[in-house]
Amino acid sequence: MSNTFYIGIDLGTSRSCLATSTGKRISTRTCVGYPKDIISQKRFGKDYLLGDDALNNRLALNMIWPLADGIICEDKKSIEATGLILKHLIAEALPEKQADDKIYVAIGVPAQASINSKKVIIDITKSFLDKILIVSEAFSVAYSIDRFDECLIVDIGAGTTDLCRMHGSMPEEEDQVTLNFAGNFLDNVITQAILEKFPEVQLTPQIIRRIKEKHGYVYDVSEPVQVTLTTQGLPAEYDITDILKECCLKLTNPISQAIQKLIATFDPDFQKKLRNNIIIAGGGSRLKGIDISIEKSLEKYGGGDAECIQDAEFCGSIGALKMCIEMPDDYWEEI
Ligand SMILES: Nc1ncnc2c1ncn2[C@@H]1O[C@H](COP(=O)(O)OP(=O)(O)O)[C@@H](O)[C@H]1O
Ligand SMILES: [Mg+2]
Fold this sequence. Notes:
The strands form four sheets. This protein has a five-stranded mixed beta sheet. Strands 11-10-9-14-15 form a five-stranded mixed beta sheet, with helices on both faces. Strands 5-4-6 form a three-stranded antiparallel beta sheet. It is flat, with a radius of gyration of 21 Å. The protein has helices at about 40-45, 50-55, 75-95, 110-115, 120-125, 135-145, 185-195, 205-215, 240-265, 270-275, 290-295, 315-325; strands spanning about 5-10, 15-20, 25-30, 30-35, 50, 60-65, 100-110, 130-135, 150-155, 160-165, 175-180, 225-230, 235-240, 280, 305-310. It is of the alpha/beta class. It has twelve helices and 15 strands. The chain folds into two domains: about 5-30 and about 65-145 and about 315-330, Nucleotidyltransferase, domain 5 (2-Layer Sandwich), CATH 3.30.420; about 145-310, Nucleotidyltransferase, domain 5, CATH 3.30.420.40. Strand 12 (about 225-230) and strand 13 (about 235-240) form a beta hairpin. The site of magnesium ion (MG) has 7 residues, from loops.
């Protein structure tokens, strides 16, 4: 007798997570690396490396981040890379799968991809999936915590911040907003600000991301932020307390504005409820003080209540898995 496996996938701009009905959890970077030349081809002995494996060997690879801009780029390489990531994630999750077993998958993607890249996702997955459901990542976050009543999900990822207004039924296009102000934007702003003040220091994207994830904050902190950076190989301490706060505010200000706009255009009878039920998810929800900063921005509208989700890493894939198990036939895509 054949089995049916259910899988929830959160296909993020920087990280993809997967949860299965058999209890597996897998997380990897949303990237593929292709050998740069014949030497790297010889070294790796294969045509491509995936996820963290690719990232760790990136000096010898041409890296593709197919969802970096929040949609699947239309070029052949990006489409192929998305297919490779999904196919390998699923194969890794289900080693026990037999030829006649069925695989049903719900995928949470950035809001714009859920609207604009549906056909591409169906085309690249139909050879290895039996049923597919494509939703916005923010909606799968809401689903994971059973929040179908009036609330506002703010999913701050790497390439995009996705906002989704929930009102007890399927969110429509006007309930969703995608901003390009997210983790990568913040990395760029911090890099520029540090180089402006200390032009000689040596920075890499990895150094910046580590500083941001450890020290980033948007609300008052007690400790000054001192980091060790090198200038021509020579390490020294640098105070970046003010730089960090100013930069982080450049990320949270546009997010607060988008929140206010989604609330202001909602049914007036429910605006207060929305203001008091803001749920922050995604890697950016770990930025210290982000909940308080969003609440502060709503003070002049009568105040608000924002909370950060607990399992920022897997909540999207767990929500997608729940949806995959529960959704009736009408909601699935035609493959
Ligand atoms: N502690 C932290 N403070 C600030 N940003 C963080 C923190 N931890 C992770 N991030 C950022 O969150 C982003 C990744 O979030 P994620 O939800 O995985 O993205 P996506 O869904 O777009 O793949 C990255 O830009 C990462 O640097
Ligand atoms: Mg995400």
